[in-house]
Structures are given as C-alpha cells and as structure tokens.
Design a protein that fits this description.
By secondary structure, the chain is of the alpha/beta class. It is built from 9 helices and 24 strands. The strands form 5 sheets. Strands 9-8-7-4-3-12-11-10 form an 8-stranded parallel beta sheet, covered by helices on one side. The N terminus is likely disordered.
Length: 504
C-alpha cells in the first residue's frame, strides 16, 4: 500500500455478515511461532501515524525526530492479540527511516536508536504471542534516490547500483536477519521479511529496473538464507503476477523467495485462485475495499476472508490497524489499543476464533512429522507417517489402516503434556474409500487415567476438521497419550490423519 492511499477495513461479526465458517480448502502452509498455522494477520505498517519516523530518524530530515512510544506499541499488540490475529505486518525503512549513510551516499549501517526501538517492538510482539512480517522498503524510492542528505552526501540508488546494493544488504538487511535469528528468545517473533512493499510499482515508476529489482531480491534472499535457511523471505506485488508460469518466472519467480504476497483492494472482490503450478505458498498480505465506508468495508472484508480461505491462499492480512487520518479506514479507532474497534475488529476476532479456538496458542503433535518427544504407540494398525497423498496440510499425512476390530491409533508423549491454557484437540481426517466411526479419548499416564470418550465421524473421500473440546473429555489436566480408536469390531480400509494439535 502506497502511503498516499492508506487502507484498512471494518465489519461486524461473522454471524451478522453471513460469513461462512472456515472452508475445508483452508490449509495451514506457513510456520508461525514454530507451528504450522494459517496466517490471520493485520497490517500496522507504520506506528503512531508517523510514516518514515515511527521507529527511527528520517536520514533526510533528522530534525523531525521519531514517534516511538513503547507503551502505545505494547497496547497495540495486546489489542491485535485480542482480535485473534497471529501475524502483524510492519514497515522498517519506509522513506529510508533508520538507515545510516556514509559520505558517498552508501548505506553504512543502522541507527542505534532505531535498533533500540525495534528491539523493544519485537520484544513486545513476542510477549503478546505475535509474529511480525518486517517489510524493509517501500516502492517510493524514486523520491529518495539522488536526494542530498544534511551531510551533503547524495543517496545512491541501492537497487540499480551494484555497490550500493551490496552495502544495503551487508549493512542493514543481513544484520537485522542475524539480530533476531541469533536471539533464541525473540526468534519466534519474526514470521518473515518482505524485501520491497509492492515492488512492481517501483519498477514501473522508474525507481529501478525490473532486472535490477530481481537481482536485488535474489541477492537479499540469499543473504538472509545465509543466516539460516529457515528464515522466510518474500517481495510483495499489488498486481496479480501469477497469470501463467512463464509470466511469473520473469517477475517474481526464481528469486529464492519462500512465499509470495499479493495485495488487492475492491468493493466487490473476486480474488484470483492460487494457480496449481505456483510452487510456494501465497498470502493476501493487504486487502480491503476501494471505497472506505462502513458498509463497504463489511461486504468487502467478508468476501476477502472467505475467498482467501477457499481459493488456496496460506493466509490474509487486513489493512490496517490504525492511522491518524481518521477517515474511516481504521480497524481500531485510536492508536492506544483500547479495544475500541470498528466492526472489522470484531470480525477478525470471530474469524480468528474459528481458526485458533479463540486465541492462537497451539501445540502441534503431528504435521508432516511427529513433534519432538512424541512416538507412535498404536496397536492393531498399519501406519505410515510419511504418506504423500492425500494431504490436507503441508506435504505429508498419516495413513492409518485398522487391521482388526477396536484397533487404536495412539500417539504417546514422553513427558505428559499439560493442558493448562488449552481447550481443545483438533485434527483433520479423511475416511478414504468409506466413512468410518472413531472414538477419541486421552490418558494422563501409560495404562491409566483415561478420559471420557467422544465418537466422531470420518467422512469418505474428503478432509474434515474434527474438534474435541477438553470439557467433552472430562477436562484432563495432562495428556500422556492420544487415542483415535476404531469404533468397530471389523478391520477397516485406510484412512488419513493430518495436523493433529492441541489449541486454545
């Protein structure tokens, strides 16, 4: 989103809007805070209504100071957490904020005050159980390249100029990636990095060439992955860059990006479906109406949420938490995080409750592989934890064949899992060629402490999400073993399980 056309959203609760529950097509494809989750996020692109001066100083106009307010930042994150979002997208160097330049106009480092404030911001996000997508640059670089700094230096074009590009990567981009990956406490608070917000606009407005933009993206992604291959990198576009595989490969493909991010604003959304050939997850990283009235926000946001879930996206992030313009585009009505929301805030909260059971905390027990300290203790079964088709989430599912009556699929944890702070067990099941009846229960110890049981159905040839509340199980205080048992005296054909987890 260009800072000249700020854009958030608003709407009432899902039931009031008729917004359908999460579609079976919705899948968790990206890791958030160590667990595979659907991205349900919001943009807080610049805090405190201060574009280019919210975290650090603007190098061209240092006399403007910065507007960082630690108390407000914490309140904002706490408020976003109450909306049941799990990812917040913020901007770092819009209008070159936070960057230092040498006498030749090359990026020489990061302002110490900027780093102090950013550390505090990341810490507060972490303390509130959120993950941040950090966006390095905005596309408006043609307004900065060639400008004269107070020192008299002229800002070099660090996308087109190879030396300037390397200085930016070496002195700003890589150090930030290292700073938070190397901090084990803060590492979960970083979801990923967006290299340039709406990079296509910068190419089209002459800030840089398409070829040099792609070179920058490839080199920056390589540098970040050099810190650790697990760090996620993207570069966003505000027009659809996925018309066909050949067109995509000349724009955003082949750059070493880990996921793609698309922005769209429409009063009557008809969100494009993620192409089957697109090899990485796709996130709708900004969305909202094109006309900012309450009623239009309601209908537009409702459509975007449901369409992203059903058309193959890995998540969606609303624009925007708050901005000082006060023109009806805000999710929150003030920057103070006082839970005084436009209707959109309640919609996000309700939608997040469908995703996360009211919060966002998740202990994943199986997703592509068994989590640490978990083992398969099934009986009367033939199991394959590395099944490649069908799969509901990720790249693997658990194929389970009950070879005898009353057989049991069972996962066992070495140290019993406390249920404090959690309220339900959730998993996806596909009955295979026939519908199956299953009995779900837990035990707090090997051979004892069985919970109450719940009977559930696994419909044939379709993925269905099963939710069993801990209250249905008699509120066990700990779980040593999970049982999903054949509720029949006969053997059964193969069925499939995926994304088994404990949530709140």
């Amino acid at each position: 989103m260009n800072q000249s056309r700020f854009a958030p959203l608003a709407l009432a609760g899902l039931a009031l809007l008729g917004l359908a529950p999460m579609s079976v097509a919705q899948t968790a494809q990206l890791t958030v805070r160590g667990n595979l989750q659907y991205v349900h996020g919001i943009n807080a692109a610049w805090f405190f209504g201060r574009y280019g001066t919210d975290i650090g100083l603007n190098p061209r106009f240092p006399e403007w100071g910065n507007g960082y307010n630690a108390s407000v930042a914490n309140n904002v994150f706490a408020d976003i957490k109450r909306m049941n979002c799990n990812v917040v997208r913020i901007w770092l160097h819009e209008d070159l904020e936070g960057l230092q330049f040498d006498s030749n106009g090359y990026v020489s480092g990061l302002q110490p005050g900027f780093l102090t404030n950013l550390d505090d911001l990341v810490t507060k996000a972490n303390n509130n159980g959120l993950a941040l997508e950090l966006t390095f640059l905005n596309h408006t670089l043609n307004n900065q390249f060639g400008q004269t700094l107070p020192s008299g230096a002229t800002i070099k074009n660090f996308i087109n100029d190879s030396t300037a590009r390397q200085r930016l990567i070496d002195n700003a981009i890589r150090p930030i990636a290292q700073r938070y990956y190397n901090n084990a406490v803060l590492r979960p608070a970083i979801f990923g990095y967006d290299l340039i917000n709406e990079a296509n606009i910068g190419a089209d407005n002459g800030s840089y060439t398409w070829a040099n933009m792609r070179t920058f993206a490839s080199e920056a992604a390589t540098a970040i992955h050099g810190v650790n291959a697990s760090i996620k990198v993207t570069m966003s576009t505000q027009w659809w860059a996925f018309d066909n595989q050949s067109y995509h490969s000349g724009r955003f493909g082949g750059l070493g990006l880990d996921y793609y991010t698309y922005h769209e604003y429409s009063n009557s959304p008809n969100l494009p479906t993620k192409p089957n050939w697109l090899e990485k997850p796709l996130v709708l990283a900004e969305y909202g109406p094109s006309t900012w009235t309450d009623s239009q926000q309601n209908s537009s946001t409702s459509a975007y949420l449901s369409q992203a879930a059903s058309r193959g996206y890995a998540g969606a992030m609303a624009w925007m938490y708050w901005h000082s313009s006060g023109n009806g585009e805000n999710v929150a009505t003030s920057e103070g995080g006082n839970q005084n929301w436009e209707p959109t805030g309640f919609t996000l909260q309700s939608y997040g409750a469908q995703l996360f059971g009211g919060g966002g905390s998740t202990q994943t027990w199986y997703n592509d592989a068994l989590a640490s300290d978990w083992q398969d203790w099934s009986w009367g079964c033939t199991n394959n934890a590395n099944n490649t088709s069908p799969v509901q989430t990720g790249t693997r599912s658990y194929a389970v064949t009950y070879t005898q009556g009353w057989a049991g699929f069972s996962l066992r944890k070495g140290t019993a899992q406390s249920t404090s702070g959690f309220s339900r067990i959730r998993f996806w099941v596909n009955g295979g060629s026939s519908t199956k009846s299953l009995t779900v229960y837990t035990s707090s110890a090997d051979g004892s402490g069985n919970s109450s049981s719940v009977t559930v159905s696994a419909p044939a040839n379709t993925w269905t999400e099963v939710t069993v509340t801990l209250s249905q199980l008699g509120n066990p205080s700990a779980i040593k073993r999970l049982y999903i048992q054949n509720n029949s005296a006969s053997s059964q054909s193969v069925m499939y399980l995926d994304n088994i987890r404990l949530t709140n």
